[in-house]
Amino acid sequence: MEEKEKFNQTLMPEIADHLNDSPGLDKLLKHNILKDISLDLSGLGIVFLSMTYPDGKLYFISDFSGDRRVTELVAKFPGIVDSYDKTLTIDDMIIRISPVIHDFEIIGYLIAGMKKEVSDNVETLFHMGNLLLKIVNFYISSTYKMNLTSSIHTLVVEDTYEELQRQNDLLKKSEKQYQELVKSLDEEVRKKAEEIKDANTQLMHQDKMASIGQLAAGVAHEINNPVGFVKSNLSTMNEYCAEFTKLIKGYRQFIHDFYATSISKDQNKALENEFEEIKQMEQTIDPDYLMEDSMDLIKESIEGTERIKKIVSDLKDFAHPGEDTPTHANINECIDSTLNIIWNELKYKVTLVKEYGNLPMLYCYPRQLNQVFMNICINAAHAIEKKGEIKIITKAYENHQEILISDTGSGISEEHISRIFDPFFTTKDVGKGTGLGLNLSYNIVKKHMGDIRVESRLNKGTTFIIKLPYENHL
Amino acid sequence: MAELQTSEKKLTVKIVYYGPALSGKTTNLMQLHDIILPRKRGELMTLETSGDRTLFFDLLPLMGKTSEGYKIKIKLFTVPGQVAHDATRKAVLSRTDGVVFVADSQLTQSVNNSISFENLEKNAGRVGIDFDTLPLVVQYNKRDLKDIIDEKEVRGLWKQTHIPVQFSTAIHGQGVKETFVSVLKEVYRNLNQKLNMESGLKITEDEFLSVANM
Q1: Please, which contacts does A407-410 make with residues 24 or more away whose CB atoms are closer than 8 Å?
Q2: Contacts of A172 (CB under 8 A, 6+ apart)
Q3: CA angle A268-A273-A277, nearest 5°?
């Protein structure tokens, strides 16, 4: 439509000029060609050559006679001619008038004059006039052809240029589309690469956890045996010790009594000396303390072995491969078992406050949730520079359980808070943090259809809030 | 669009011979030039190129006079048939009053015929001609050759369109004048509606058709 309008507005008049209309004398027969012809005519006896419009108005005149009458004469002619050639004699001149016809129309008159000096002038002028007419007609038709051709040519060039430009635009457009496609493909590839990288990292992490689990299981088994018999021996020792203590107490009482009642000061000097030695020994050794402390030591050692046993069992629980099946678990117990493992990281600078609610069992992957609690607690400990508090609150709601883990640490800056769950995002020094802990935690909570979010104020502390619904489709 | 100059009592009409390459458009004009009375026609203007192919166009002007003194000028154009010269075809086609579509009867040319006809329709649209009302005659040329499309089949093909169909052997002058008269009739009917030729300008159909007189 646009093309059509443009065609009509800008090009139609030109076509109309050349294809549909007949151009006039001005366009078909230039002055210079007439002038050129007339130069030679003077040598042939012609004294003037003129061309007029159909209405008699002068178009061209070349006068060699110097006779002023010529112009006046020419002005009279149109009244006396029509569409046929004529030869007239006016005063001392013979004049030949020929209509010039183009496209069925008289577009002008060609007028040539000779001095009436010799009798055969009429004949010469007749032929001369015909020849001139032929030249003029040929010239006119050539010019007309050229005009038509060049106007068509112009039109075609413009049209072709427009068409090329249109195609160029289309090509540009399609090139742009391709570029965009390439860009979006790049983006897609980058995204996929990132996804693969993430998945790979998770796999690596799982692999690592599996290795740790195997190692832990092996170590736990090896430790369990000696710990077992040490504990058993200690228990026996404890019994023995109690017996020994009883016995030694008896001996001492007997010696004390015997010395006080039965032995005179001089009767048995040797016995007395021995008794004094024992007394001195007792003073140095302090058997009362020894007996009491031995019992305490054994009791502490038994407690120690119990703790070793618990840690080993927790370690086994924490990362044991092949046991990743959902079970019913108590989240409070899960948190405790996690704290047990990381207690070393916390104990010197953290005061732990627990406000556990009465939680019903939750169907979940306890080991995975343990990882979540561990990651958050360790992060909390790292956020505390010297001394601070970690508070763990658990609450049961109708449809879900909520775990809040707060610390009084350095907090998370606003620019970082939106990215903390992103994989590989870490503010820790190179080699200290992988940037995966919270990402993994996030994924685990999401797997439980739960929600994890964070509230933090710089230099005040951070609170992680985890919601775990009962209905988690596990 | 026909040009009417009432002050000069002059009507100029443009008719274009369209069609695929080498179907005989120029031959039609050459034959008309030879058939029509010399005083009624101008010279056939061809822009000769190597190998007899029309590069720009051919032009044959014709002239008629009515009893009321109206001059009727008819300009016959041909277009270059070669596919590459589409812009030229478009330019020549603009403001035409009628079209003769010269088809090549040879069976091998039927595809070229339809491509060219589609091109005509497209270019008519591009230069603002309403194709549905455009006076149009289809001429099946080269009837003297072997392996040509059957006359009955041709008539069947065009029956639905109500476009007049002519058969010709332009090279021998057969059917050329009939085609021309047929398109003149179509043009007259169309112009009569637009310009009120018969009752207003007092140009009768016979007078209009007399342009084609031998």
Answers
A1: A407/A380, A407/A381, A407/A383, A407/A461, A407/A462, A407/A463, A408/A384, A408/A460, A408/A461, A409/A380, A409/A382, A409/A383, A409/A384, A409/A385, A409/A461, A409/A462, A410/A383, A410/A384, A410/A385, A410/A458, A410/A459
A2: none
A3: 150
Å between A149 CA and nearest CA of chain B: 7
Q: Residues of A with CB below 8 A from B121's CB?
A: none
Count of other CB atoms within 10 angstroms of residue B99: 28
**B3 → closest Cβ in A20, A145, A159:** A20
- Chain A closest CA to B142's CA: distance in Å? 29
What would the 3-class secondary structure string for A449-469 be? CCEEEEEEECCCEEEEEEEEE
Q: What's the CATH number of domain B3-212, 4.10.375.10, 3.40.50.720, 3.20.20.140, 3.40.50.300?
A: 3.40.50.300
Residue B143 sits at the chain A interface (C-beta within 8 Å): no
Q: What is the DSSP string of A168-207?
A: HHHHHHHHHHHHHHHHHHHHHHHHHHHHHHHHHHHHHHHH
d(CA A167, CA A21): 34
pLDDT in tens, B42-70: 888 887 666 667 777 889 999 988 888 88
| CB contact residues (below 8 A), chain B span 17-56, against chain A | 42-43, 45, 47, 56
- H helices of A262-365, in order, are 269-285, 287-318, 331-346
% of chain A at pLDDT higher than 90: 23
How far is it, in rounded angstroms, from Cα B147 to Cα B106? Answer: 6
- In this prediction, residue A150 carries a pLDDT of 85
Angle between helices B25-35 and B176-195 (to 10 degrees): 90
CB nearest A20 (choices: B12, B71, B127): B12
Distance from CA of B90 to the nearest CA of A (A): 9
pLDDT at A3: 43
Interface confidence, given as ipTM, is 0.83
CA distance B62 to A104: 9
Task: Report the residue of B83, B88, B211 to disrupt the A interface, i.e. the one with the largest count of A CBs within 10 Å.
Answer: B88
> For residue A8, what pLDDT band results from cuts at 50, 70 and 90?
very low
Cα separation, A354 vs A356, whole angstroms:
6
What single letter denotes the amino acid at residue B125? G
Residue A15: per-residue pLDDT: 44
Query: Nearest CA to B188 among B15, B7, B9?
Result: B15
Q: Decide if A21 contacts A31 (C-beta within 8 A).
A: no
Per-residue pLDDT tens over the stretch A309-361: 767 766 665 554 445 688 899 999 999 988 888 888 788 889 999 999 999 99
Contact B139, B168 (CB under 8 A): yes
List residues in chain A touching B: CB distance below 8 A.
Answer: 3-4, 7-8, 11-12, 15-16, 19-21, 103-104, 141, 144-145, 148-149, 152-153, 155-156, 159-160, 163
**Is B94 in Cβ contact with A15 (below 8 Å)?**
yes
- Taking only the tens place, the pLDDT of each residue in B171-187 is 999 999 999 999 999 99
From chain A, pick out residues whose CB is under 8 angstroms from the CB of B90. Answer: 7, 159
Whether the CB-CB separation of A83 and B39 falls below 8 Å is answered with: no
Q: How confident is the model at residue A5 (pLDDT cuts 50, 70, 90)?
A: very low
Q: What angle do CA A279, A285, A288 make, to 5 degrees?
A: 85
pLDDT band at residue A75 under the 50/70/90 scheme: low
